[in-house]
Every structure is written in structure tokens, then in C-alpha cells.
Amino acid sequence: MMDKDFNYSKLPYGWTLCYLSECSRKEECLRYQVCLSVTLTKSQCVLPAVLRKGKCPYFHPIRKIQVAVGFKGIFADVKERDHAEMRKRIANYLGRGGTYYRYRNGEKPLTPKQQEWIRQLFLRYGYTKELMFDRYETVYDVKD
Hints:
This protein is of the alpha+beta class.
């Protein structure tokens, strides 16, 4: 079941929703559960015809992930000689220009996969201290 305080503004614009009350997996599908208590406009919807095939290709399990919000402090113990190259590699991975700064400043959360990539980068440079991002949040996983 969905949390009562779920923040619907965190859903990606145009995220596919499902109103199929006859679906056997509706209780465990995030797309259906979101529809029970939200009014969104300009969203894509699952149509009943998908159930004719037996298995819904849009099924999205309800699961939570821990995202990291911001990483201004991760370079505190990085040696000056490594700082520029490591920052460049992270920017290339996350997206150059403003995208890097949106992640760094906490405007875009880092997925567990992105956090692990950054941790591995620090390990490759010899930094073994546990890497802590600015803060963490538990959110619903809406990635397809």
C-alpha cells in the first residue's frame, strides 16, 4: 500500500498511470495505487486491452529506494591532485553543465546505482573512507 504522505509531484511528467480495477495485480502495482488518490492531468494511461494478453507489460511493483540528495561534502578529504579529475568523471557520468550541479546541490536525487558508481570511483582513486552524501531520502522507485 502507498504511504499517505506520498509526494505526487515527484513522479516524472507523463508517467504512465493505470485505472484497471479488474487487474489481478493492482494491489501491488505502483501505477494503479497512485491513481487511487491523485488527480493528474496530461498523463498516459493503461488501457483495458493490455489484459487480453494475460500479463500486463506496464506492471510496476511498489518498491522504495534510498536516494542521496546532494553531494557537496564528498570532496572534503580528496587530495587536490585528484579533485579536478574526479569531478570531471562524475560530471561526465551524471551529465555535464547544469545537470551535474543539480545533482550536487540536491535538486536531483542520486539513485542507488549512481551512488554506487561514485563510491567505486572514490575506491579506484584509493579513498576507502565510507562515502556519505549530504542527506538521504526513501522514495518510491518510479524508474522504468
